[in-house]
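Please study the protein below:
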Amino acid sequence: MLKKGLTGFQIKLIALFLMIFDHVYYFFAFNDKVPLWFKWIGRSVAPIFIFMVVEGFIHTRNRTKYMTRLYIGSLVMTFGNQWITEWFQRNDNVALMANIFATLFLITVYLTIIEYLGKGIKERRIMPVVLGILGLVLPIALGIFMMMNLHIPGMIHAIFLLPTPMFVEGGPVFIALGILFYLTHDKKILQLILYALVSIALIPWQNFSLQGLFYDNFQWLMIGALPLLALYNGQRGKGMKYLFYVFYPVHIYGLYILSTLFV
């Protein structure tokens, strides 16, 4: 029975539409003809997909396959970014670094560890608790190690092959956001309140001004995703589970290649 509100599929379609605006600005802002509000509305996209990947992680029947798809997606983007920029070069400093798959994959890794840790605490078993805590710390420690040893041959490749909080798109903030969505999964009001507070916390309070709010640091505009998250009715909706996996790289590479014709 169809519930009121929006299904996961409908929310994803809206996010895909908004994502186009965000990436059009990123690749074509050089000509000063793309309005900045394209970037503003794009701030909601990543949080929406983080929310939906947490929902997918919770409800999927095979988490191993789910996580594997995300990791394969991150590898496709890693090698795709390298190859596309070699074949189609721009004359400015715009880099092709988009890879939200790595962020989403790392979120599912953390959720797996948190579940394992939670089970250990519930069962009062010391070893799972210790291993769980180590699992939470390891990606951070690995990222710090990579950051301190960038001079080592091959380390750059390791950064992209082994996602860590410091080197994925959105960094620790997006990872923490995924964990927040997971921990408040069955507490909708609390989830929305905490999401709003996280968004507000990203406002540049120290140098508060309209310039700072809308031109210098406007990641807080991800609060625009709040209505969509509130309208989510808990239903998956239509299938097409590979739509995002295909659309994301295709539209990014399409826009990038098109942009090289005008730079």
